[in-house]
Amino acid sequence: MNDGKVARWETAEASRLSRRSSSHHPCPLPWRAADDFRPRASTHSASPSPPDPFMRTLNNVLEIQPLYSTVTTSARLPPRSFQRKVFSAGGSFYTEDAILEVPIKKGLRAGSRITFPNAGDRYPQKKADDLVVIIYDKSHQQYTRDKDDVTYKCNLPISDALCGCTLHIPLILGGTHQMTITEVIQPGTTRRIRGEGIPNNRTGVRGDLIVVFDINFPKRIHPDLKEVLRRIDE
Length: 234
Hints:
The chain contains 3 helices and 16 strands. By secondary structure, it is mostly beta strands. A 5-stranded mixed β-sheet has the order 2-9-10-1-4. A 4-stranded mixed β-sheet has the order 11-12-16-15. The chain has a 3-stranded antiparallel β-sheet with strand order 3-7-6, with no helix packed on it. A hairpin with a 2-residue loop joins strand 11 and strand 12 (149-157). Residues 1-53 are annotated as: Disordered.
C-alpha cells in the first residue's frame, strides 16, 4: 500500500521519551562508524547541552517496503547512514557519520518508536542522546490501513452494482478472494474478508480486509434506457 512504512530518525532523552511513547521498542545498538567517516574540521561553536528536552529531527527520511510484505515474517531495514554531532568540552562540535540497521517486527504500527540507546549526539561528561526511529505508513496504490485492518476500494460499473457479479478481490499477500454479489450495491457498501489484514504485533492475530464499493456511473445513457430505469421506481 502506499502505506508501507516511512522511518524518520530522531534523537531524544531516553527517560522522557519512554514516558511519552505509546509503542516503545528498546533495541540493542547495531550502529557502527561509517567506513568513510571523517570528522569535519570544526568551525562551529555551540553549547554542549541537549538540543531539545525530548526530540530533535536529524533530517533523514527512510522509506521502506509496505508492512504488508512483513505479514508473515519480521524484517530488517538495509543499513542507513545518518549524522550526529560530537561536542567538545569547550562547546565546539564536529559531525560524524554512523550506520544503523533497524529491525522491523511484523505488523508494526505507524507511530511506533524504536530506540537505540546512546546512538545520538554525544556530549562531554554526559550520557549520549538516544537515537529514535519513528515508523510511518507509506501510501499504497490499492490499500489503506487502519490499525490491523486494511481497506480496499472496489469500483463497480453500474450494471454490476444493479445486476450482481462475481469479483476477485486482490489480497495483500498475493492471490485473490472470490466474492459473489447478488444484491444491489450502493456507493459506500462494505464487505469484510476475515483474517486477511495485518497481524497484530503483540498477539499475531490478523485483522480483516474491508472492501468498500464505489459505483461508476455512465456519463450519458440512451433515451430508451431512461424509460426502463424510470420503471424501476414504479
